[in-house]
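Query structure, 321 tokens:
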């Protein structure tokens, strides 16, 4: 009887120890991107590849997007726990009743720009609209409405965006087109074209871009998990900015339409848009309420939203100190 009792006690103790020493279960999550694997998402892939997510007890599936991927709607509907959107897209969605919250802003300076020929001799973005010519852009976007209201389109002919195609740009010297400074200008340089870019932010419209978001109810129910994701993302972006080569090689296999030199050039072009004086002080991905308030007022002024949601509801500061 004593031997049996001892075995029972020993087995109970052993089971308790095994349970105590067992690793915490890995949390499986989905991060939905809004475009293909490119350097603008390098830090998210690096967080997965370097083990930054795993070190935080996470198994994160990074899902590539494409043209028209409804990322913000997917997050709001619970089809993905996390997603990538722009700050103005988030404000518009919140204005329409979607409880989507920003967690980490990769681009502190929006990479949206207008590209024209350097031979035109322009000094600032306003010169594009003070001189005759053609500007190709998607007029329905908030930034286009902002430029129209601030600079006016009276002297230029506005046509639809060519979607990255440089055919017309090569032929017409008085032509400008919307672009991302991490993409089309690099392609133009490879073709030997004298491209010059002007950031939309120079005109005063500068939403955070490549913003990690989640649902408000998911954040409230899983604060520790969300913080772990944010910590992993920050570590991933730190790793990628320090050395993007391995992650670029992995992304190039997923997106073979982009060659390795373009991956390298794009990663270099985005660094100053991601690392700023503010991030040096507060850390990568930081966000300020003043920026959200300014953007909200701009969208109301443009009649994109009827009322701007409070800045405090738009983002959560979960960055580790």
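Result returned for the query:
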């Amino acid at each position: 009887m004593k031997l049996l009792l001892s075995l029972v006690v020993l087995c109970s103790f052993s089971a308790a120890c095994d349970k105590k020493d067992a690793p915490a279960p890995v949390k499986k999550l989905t991060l939905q991107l809004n475009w293909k694997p490119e350097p603008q998402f390098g830090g998210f892939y690096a967080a997965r590849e370097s083990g930054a997510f795993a070190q935080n007890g996470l198994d994160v599936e990074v899902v590539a997007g494409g043209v028209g991927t409804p990322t913000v709607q997917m997050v709001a509907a619970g089809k993905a726990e996390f997603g990538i959107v722009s700050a103005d897209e988030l404000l518009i969605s919140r204005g329409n009743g979607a409880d989507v919250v920003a967690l980490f802003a990769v681009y502190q300076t929006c990479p949206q720009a207008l590209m024209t020929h350097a031979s035109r001799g322009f000094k600032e973005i306003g010169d594009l609209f003070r001189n005759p010519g053609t500007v190709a852009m998607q007029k329905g976007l908030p930034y286009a409405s902002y430029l129209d209201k601030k600079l006016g389109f009276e002297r230029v002919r506005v046509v639809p965006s060519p979607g990255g195609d440089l055919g017309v740009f090569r032929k017409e010297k008085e032509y400008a087109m919307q672009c991302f400074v991490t993409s089309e200008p690099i392609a133009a340089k490879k073709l030997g074209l004298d491209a010059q870019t002007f950031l939309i932010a120079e005109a005063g419209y500068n939403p955070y871009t490549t913003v990690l978001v989640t649902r408000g109810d998911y954040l409230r129910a899983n604060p520790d998990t969300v913080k772990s994701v944010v910590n992993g993302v920050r570590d991933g972006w730190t790793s990628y900015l320090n050395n993007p080569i391995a992650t670029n090689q992995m992304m190039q296999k997923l997106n073979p339409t982009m060659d390795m030199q373009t991956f390298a050039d794009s990663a270099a072009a985005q660094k100053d848009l991601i690392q700023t004086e503010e991030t040096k002080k507060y850390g990568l991905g930081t966000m300020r309420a003043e920026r959200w308030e300014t953007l909200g007022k701009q969208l109301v002024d443009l009649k994109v939203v009827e009322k701007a949601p409070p800045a405090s509801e738009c983002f959560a500061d979960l960055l580790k100190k």
